[in-house]
Amino acid sequence: MRTCQNVLMANTRSTSLSVRLKLETKKRLAKFEKASRCSSNFLISDAIESYVAYRERMMTEVSQADRQVKSGHYVKDEDMKAWLLSWGSKNELPVPKCVCDKEHNDESLCQ
What we know:
The protein has 111 residues and is mainly alpha-helical. It folds into two domains: 21-70, no CATH class; 73-111, no CATH class. 50% of the residues lie in helices and 0% in strands. The protein is built from three helices and no strands. The chain has helices at 23-36, 40-70, 77-86.
């Protein structure tokens, strides 16, 4: 998270946006503004930027997962559930395999 002391909004291109907040949220924001010594404008802008970046990452991950499923690269739901439920037990199961029956790693779909 950026610190408000290090950011000069005057040096960036920006636009205005009106946001309606619940009264309770506005009061909470005012307390946080005072405690953090950051303007509510900075706090709201930073929160929106973080949220948008998070949602972009989420959409990318969902798209990638959709492509993997459509191309036949996924772990069966029941295999994943059984593996997760076995964690910490005396009979912990090995990592479930992809339905394509090939090894996977974080870098590629199948090897």
